[in-house]
Amino acid sequence: MSFTLLALQGFGGVLAVVQREIVERKQWLTREEFLEDWAVAQVLPGPNVVNLSLMIGGRHFGLTGALSALAGLLLAPSAVALLLAMAYAGVADHPTAQAALRGMGAVVAGLIIATGLKLIPALRTNPLGYLPGLAWALLCFVAVALLRLPLAAVLLGMGGLSSVWAWRQLAQLEKHSGPPT
Predict the structure, then answer these.
(1) What kind and span of H or E run contains 87?
(2) Contacts of 68 by beta carbon, 8 Å cutoff, 6+ apart
(3) 32 pLDDT more than 90
(4) Where do the structural domains in the chain lie, given as residue ranges?
(5) CB of 73 within 8 A of CB of 6?
(6) Which of 2-6, 51-55, 77-81, 140-144 has the lowest mean pLDDT?
């Protein structure tokens, strides 16, 4: 039921809703755990929130939980999308409908930015460090939003470099503190 409500609240831009519900309200994950799981969900094929729901459902309730989370996330929104598509077909060429969709896009962009700002404090425990993490995020933004570089190239290039950097940082931490007990 939780994932059905998440999907219906965040129709078309669910990251902000999922972060608020899972981290802040239900406290199923910490900010750090959410960021780690979200990073994995982004790398896996398919929609990020679907991957996240499968991970959370599977972690807490096994295969049944994963499938229940998936069904909850997809069934009701699919029905709503079909109904909206049928309704939109009749007004698709109307300027008011087109303007409303552009406005909704701006709202979704604002929600994603707000969620990113909320998650910035989690960089304090990131292996890259707070300031390098912020700088890396800014570089990625500039590469994609301003320089219009292909997202796949930025993810592979900068994501690969930051992964190597984080791996080296973790190796240095382990070297100085000894193996985990």
Answers:
(1) helix 48-89
(2) 3, 57, 61
(3) no
(4) 2-94
(5) yes
(6) 2-6
